[in-house]
Specification:
single chain; rod-shaped; 156 residues; alpha+beta
Length: 156
């Protein structure tokens, strides 16, 4: 008969240690967190681009309302876009540009909206010519420029 102390035990090394499993879980968790953050930022960027596109389109519509040279008056007017675009407001300022022709008016149209407690705006500047003020008829719009901004009520 054999002595029980002579039994040999074979230790199996075919599995993973706890440290290896924890390290793998940490790497996968970090990767998933990074991917989720990237997807969130891409979604925010797409929404922001969509808002700027809507604001530019609304500004173009508002500018068309004032395309007729007899359809505008100097001063500041404000409003919103009704039920279709409740988040967007507009402000239009029309002043005579004394440095140019006497019938040239500068129109500044600002579209504002709020998202996540942050205010954004898009501003379009256009020059209007009122031929009824002089005998020379040059057309309605001489030129336009565009600039956009973000922040707490200011432009970048």
């Amino acid at each position: 008969m054999r002595c029980p102390s002579r039994f040999t035990f074979h230790v199996s090394r075919s599995g993973f240690t706890l440290l290896e499993v924890m390290l793998a879980v940490a790497i996968v968790g970090t990767a998933l967190f990074t991917i989720a953050m990237a997807i969130g930022r891409c979604t925010d960027a797409a929404k922001n681009a969509s808002n700027y596109t809507v604001a530019h389109d609304l500004a173009e519509l508002k500018l068309l309302e004032c395309a007729n040279p007899t359809n505008f008056t100097e001063g500041i007017t404000t409003g919103d876009f009704g039920e279709n675009f409740p988040a967007y407001q507009w402000q239009r300022e029309i002043v005579m540009d004394a440095s140019q022709l006497e019938s040239l008016f500068k129109q500044t149209l600002t579209i504002k909206w709020k998202e996540r407690n942050r205010e954004y705006d898009v501003t379009l500047n256009t020059f209007l010519y009122n031929p009824s003020a002089t005998s020379n008829s040059m057309g309605n719009a001489l030129g336009s420029s565009s600039r956009g901004g973000a922040g707490a009520g200011g432009n970048r």
